[in-house]
């Protein structure tokens, strides 16, 4: 089939990674995939589908080529995708990587966008329930995956200092409030105060690190070491050198870094974020707390002081992560795609 994906950006990030992985795998199994970007769209992933750009600025219905299915994602791509679908008589499916109204600006527009496209795909049962409760639409679940580049490189040295790491994204722009990064730093500082021997690594995309004044201030903070992986191989190394990986996000439909770190053999300490319940089970393969419990630092310290528990959780997490692959996600996506198209012939 001819599949058209309108995309705002393909810079480094969880949603963009899933778009890249799905479209690449769909191309590999024989679909004709076109990714439509704004005229100034940025691409930081290696893409196998065809890339085209809007003639002027933002996406317009006239920019969409002919195809069988349009797959929108972020709320700002939904209205224009629906117009293009109606003009071309092709099926419009929304693949929602997050539920935007709860945590992003312009929530009146993002909320109403869920009343536009009845064909909906989501990432987790938590997200499915929220959308069904608010809009009456039961989206089909397409789970997240982990690529083969992420693996346990077995570079941890028990004779060296223990490493605790976390992702830090640029706070400027209003798109990272759900990550609770101020809380993360507060909790990491508490850990450092109790265990000064521990190394704290903050991992950021190099572009965001360079352009964010807030992230720049952390460079001179002696409590942290900054890591800016240029690609997934380097990111895998940083996950693999981490004894404990920490996630403070309180609102994620999939939460990729946590499961990627698990695949690389790190013990996960996390805040409940909704979507991470697809792969997290407290006390079995991670330590998880609700934000109100204010327990993130305490859980990290527990794993610092209990190496046997840390190793057991890391081993279980690595095992569980094997069930999540992009090949499986793509197959589920394709199956649902065929079902929807069969119900909506052009």
User: What integer is the average pLDDT?
Assistant: 95
Q: Which CATH top level class of the largest domain fits?
A: Alpha Beta
Q: Based on CA inertia axes, which overall geometry fits?
A: globular
Count of strand segments: 13
* Radius of gyration, taken over Cα atoms and rounded to an integer in Å: 20 Å
CATH architecture of the largest domain: 3-Layer(aba) Sandwich
The total of helices stands at 12
Biggest sheet strand order reads: 3-2-1-4-5-6-7
Main β sheet profile: 7 strands, parallel
Question: Quick gist of this model?
Answer:
The protein has helices at about 15-30, 80-90, 105-115, 125-135, 180-195, 205-210, 215, 230-240, 255-265, 295-305, 305-320, 325-345, and strands at about 1-5, 30-35, 50-55, 70, 90-95, 120, 140, 165, 200-205, 225, 245, 265-270, 285-290.
């Amino acid at each position: 089939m001819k599949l058209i994906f309108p995309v705002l950006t393909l810079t480094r990030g969880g949603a963009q990674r899933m778009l890249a992985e799905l479209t690449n795998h769909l191309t590999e199994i024989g679909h004709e995939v076109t990714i439509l970007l704004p005229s100034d769209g940025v691409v930081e992933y290696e893409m196998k589908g065809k890339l085209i750009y809007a003639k002027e600025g933002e996406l317009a219905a006239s920019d969409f080529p002919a195809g069988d299915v349009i797959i929108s994602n972020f709320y700002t791509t939904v209205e224009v995708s629906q117009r293009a679908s109606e003009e071309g008589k092709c099926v419009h499916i929304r693949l929602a990587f997050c539920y935007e109204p709860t945590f992003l600006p312009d929530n009146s527009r993002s909320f109403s966008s869920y009343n536009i496209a009845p064909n909906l795909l989501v990432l987790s049962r938590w997200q499915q329930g929220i959308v069904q409760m608010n809009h009456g639409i039961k989206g089909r679940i397409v789970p997240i995956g982990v690529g083969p580049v992420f693996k346990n490189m077995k570079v941890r040295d028990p004779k060296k200092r223990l490493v605790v790491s976390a992702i830090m994204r640029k706070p400027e722009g209003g798109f990272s409030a759900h990550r609770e990064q101020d809380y993360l730093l507060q909790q990491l500082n508490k850990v450092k105060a109790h265990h000064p021997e521990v190394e704290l690594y903050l991992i950021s995309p190099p572009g965001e690190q360079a352009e964010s004044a807030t992230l720049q201030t952390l460079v001179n903070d002696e409590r942290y070491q900054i890591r800016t992986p240029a690609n997934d191989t380097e990111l895998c190394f940083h996950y693999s050198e981490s004894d404990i990986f920490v996630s403070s996000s309180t609102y994620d439909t999939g939460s990729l870094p946590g499961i990627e770190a698990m695949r690389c053999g790190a013990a996960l300490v996390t805040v409940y974020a909704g979507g991470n319940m697809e792969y997290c089970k407290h006390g079995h393969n991670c330590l998880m707390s609700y934000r109100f419990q204010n327990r993130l630092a305490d859980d990290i310290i527990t794993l610092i002081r209990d190496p046997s528990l840390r190793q057991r959780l890391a081993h279980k997490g690595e095992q569980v992560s094997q069930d999540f692959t992009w090949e499986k996600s793509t197959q589920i996506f394709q199956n649902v795609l065929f079902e929807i198209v069969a119900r909506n012939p052009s």
